[in-house]
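Sharing a chain and its predicted structure for anyone who wants a worked example. Both blocks are below, sequence first, tokens second.
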Amino acid sequence: MFRFSCADYTFPLLDRLTSLRLIHLLNFSHVDIGLFARSSQYSPSDLMASPQSYTAQVVSDLEAAGMAVSDVFIQIGEDPSECSANDPSSVTRGRNREVFARSLEFCSAVGSKHLTGLPGVFHPELSVKRNLELAAQEAAFRVKACTDAGICYGIEPHVGSICADSKSAAEFLRMVQGLTLTLDYGHFVMAGETSSQSLGLLKSTSHFHARGGAFQRLQTSVAENEIDFPEIVAELQRLRYDGFLALEYVWIDWNGCNRTDNVSETVLLRAALQAAIAGSTLETESSMRRQGAASG
């Protein structure tokens, strides 16, 4: 059974409680929290300044809105290259670990069983090998910390990162035991890959971000979408995926991600996903009946 969630950062112009209530009104019971440096709703710096009182207020807002948390997504810097997981500075990486530790405590406190981070970027002053080594070291540290806390850790491969396509994402997964993916096909499709090229990554996916996307367009309306969601849903069903399908339309002046009506597109994409799930389920049941008849 697929479960749906909606990202709080779909509606960044609203205050935290209003955003949660809107997501609830859209008939979602779970929310993905973006613990982003750029966020006015959930900020790592606010968390670090007063961890207990900040977390208590977030928990209170969640309860007031009747929402549960499906994922906490941490981005420490304003840009993925700022305070990246594989920053060349050991001082910065040490500070990142402190923020990550607090974020993990926050994740547990709000009841989320999943935490997402970014993999890192290529820093020009380092070799490719060293960039990947540092990224793998930090990912392994985070996987262990999350596992010890009973939480699943996943990275989101993204444009501009060390995992900018399906091949590099698969290679990085092989470097870090226990690492999973928070997968957003839009980053790969934007760069020219087809949906089918990324199907192999679904077996390592623990959280799935869904929004419209197309070649050279990171985010599109459902009508302009080129991602093959029925194919993805069918493969997830075959793999018996038990994570969330997170509706993740964003509103930010980056790669044209402020040109969609996020309320309407969230509703439309969820309906399209539900139709794909129903169609895939019927096809699976029909196939099972045919197999049963043939064996009988």
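Comments welcome. The mean pLDDT is 94.
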